[in-house]
Structure formats: structure tokens, C-alpha cells
Design brief:
single chain; alpha/beta; TIM Barrel; 8-stranded parallel beta sheet; two-stranded antiparallel sheet; 10 helices; 10 strands; 14% strand; globular
Length: 280
């Protein structure tokens, strides 16, 4: 079984640097994916109430030692008022069949609800032992710095869109300066970056898949990667990153691939969607 390196959170907890991403897969597909990942040695599963797959994941987790798994979920932006954060977390725990989450994230910022209110609820969940670490997702440096200023619990993680085509140097720099771990959502650019000439050239040169090349680069750059695949074979392949090396000059070729191209975190939002639930 692969031994995955970890990064240390402010709490002292160890976060495995590669996790099983579960966005947009459900039913037997997500169960097969999570099971393949845990059997291969991931030890880190990332989900969210908005993914609508927590119950299926919970059924799989029941077959493993809970203490061996770093489990993350997220609360939707429409549920960021105090009572709704508490209720969302409790509902996620019930669906996942566990007493606690290792990490609970604000899935998206919601400017219509007080961030202080949301973080007060997060602190309550932390005090009750229902969550061990607090984090955010899709926060800009501005939003993250505000959260860090008012939160009673350290903001351990910012999960953001990050891949060779969207490297976000200013945001990454702020996270590093404040000891906030960066998790890469869509670390493979939802496969768009597989068309990148540098990615393809390096995959051929190193006899690896494009996914492995991109994930290796992210790991070497200190990012926690959350690749998602509906194919167990690809899930296992995405963890095969630790017994081979990429030359620094080749990693730098990927550093130079940035084109400020998001695949999902676009500057504007569809505020009418169910994710946000912000009425006029």
C-alpha cells in the first residue's frame, strides 16, 4: 500500500497530500471510487453536502477504521447562517455515519450572510468535537484574510481551483504567508489541461499519464491534490506518484504553463442557483 506524505495543520493533525475527490459522482460509482482509493492507501476523502453522495460514501467508510481516514465535508453557501451551519454539519455526520469530521469547509463565500456568524457556528462545532479543523473553499486572499482575522479557530485550509492553467500566485502567496494549506480542487483542470503541450510532452518523456505528471507537479509544489475519477484503475494510478522524480527544470516548464484559465471558478456567480440560494 502506498504511503502518502502529509502536511501538518495548525491543530497538529496530519493531512494526506492526496485525497479522493468525489465531486459529480454518486451511487455505486462513488462507492467504487472511494473503496479503490482507500484500498490503495489514500487515507483522505473529500466530499460535501452539495455533492449529494455522503450517504453512499458513509456506507463504504463503515468497512474501514475511521481513525485511519481524514474525512472532509463542506457546507453550502445557502446554509451559512448560524443554525443552518450546525444543522448541515449534523446532517452530514449522520449521512457519513461518523461522529466527527476531520475538516469542515465553507464551500463558497456568501456575501449575503455574515461571515462572523458562520465562523461562530464553526467554532461551536469545533468546541463540541464535531469537527477537528475549520477551513474555507473558493475564498480569495481578501476573503481569507477577513476570515482569519475574525475566526476563533485557525483557518487550516483554503480549497481552491488550482492546476497548471490557473496558478493564482497572489492567492497562493497569501496562503503560504499565513500557514494556510492549499488544496487543489479540480487539480486536473477537469481534464482540460491534458491538452497542454507541456503536459503531453512530459507524460511522454517520463512514460506517465498526463494526470500523473500534473499531480506530481502539484505535490512537488506543496499543494494537496484532490483528483476525482469514476474509474478505479485511474484512482489507483493517480496515487502512483511517490517512487519516481521529475527534474526541477521540467517542473518549471509547468510553472510557465499558467494562462489564468479557470474551468469553474469564474469571476461572476450564478446567484440564482441552488448552491447559493440568494433571493432578490
Amino acid at each position: 500500500m502506498t504511503q502518502v506524505p502529509t502536511v501538518t495543520l495548525p491543530s497538529g493533525d496530519e493531512l494526506p497530500q492526496v485525497g479522493v475527490g468525489t465531486w459529480d459522482i454518486d451511487g455505486e460509482t462513488v462507492q467504487e471510487s472511494v473503496r479503490a482509493g482507500l484500498d490503495a492507501g489514500y487515507g483522505h476523502v473529500d466530499t460535501a453536502e452539495g455533492y449529494m453522495n455522503e450517504a453512499e460514501i458513509g456506507d463504504v467508510l463503515a468497512d474501514y477504521d475511521r481513525e485511519d481516514i481524514f474525512l472532509t465535508s463542506k457546507v453550502l453557501p445557502k446554509n451559512l447562517n448560524y443554525d443552518s451551519v450546525i444543522q448541515s454539519c449534523e446532517a452530514s455526520l449522520e449521512r457519513l455515519g461518523t461522529d466527527y469530521l476531520d475538516l469542515y469547509l465553507i464551500h463558497w463565500p456568501n456575501p449575503a450572510i455574515s461571515l462572523r456568524e458562520t465562523l461562530d457556528a464553526m467554532a461551536t462545532l469545533h468546541d463540541r468535537g464535531l469537527i477537528r479543523n475549520v477551513g474555507v473553499s473558493n475564498f480569495s486572499a481578501y476573503q481569507l484574510s477577513c476570515a482569519q482575522h475574525i475566526s476563533d479557530v485557525p483557518i487550516a485550509v483554503n480549497q481552491i481551483e488550482f492546476h497548471p492553467w490557473l496558478q493564482r500566485s497572489d492567492l497562493v502567496e497569501h496562503c503560504r504567508e499565513t500557514d494556510t494549506v492549499i488544496e487543489a480542487a479540480a487539480p486536473l483542470g477537469r481534464t482540460e489541461v491534458f491538452e497542454d503541450d507541456t503536459v503531453r510532452d512530459l507524460a511522454e518523456e517520463y512514460d506517465k499519464s498526463p494526470a500523473q505528471i500534473v499531480l506530481k507537479w502539484e505535490i512537488e509544489r506543496g499543494i494537496v491534490a484532490l483528483p476525482k475519477s469514476s474509474t478505479p484503475e485511474h484512482v489507483r494510478q493517480n496515487l502512483d506518484l511517490f517512487d519516481w522524480d521529475v527534474a526541477e527544470e521540467d517542473l518549471e516548464r509547468l510553472d510557465d504553463a499558467d494562462r489564468n484559465h479557470p474551468v469553474y471558478d469564474h469571476p461572476a456567480r450564478d446567484w440564482t442557483g441552488d448552491v447559493y440560494g440568494i433571493s432578490q
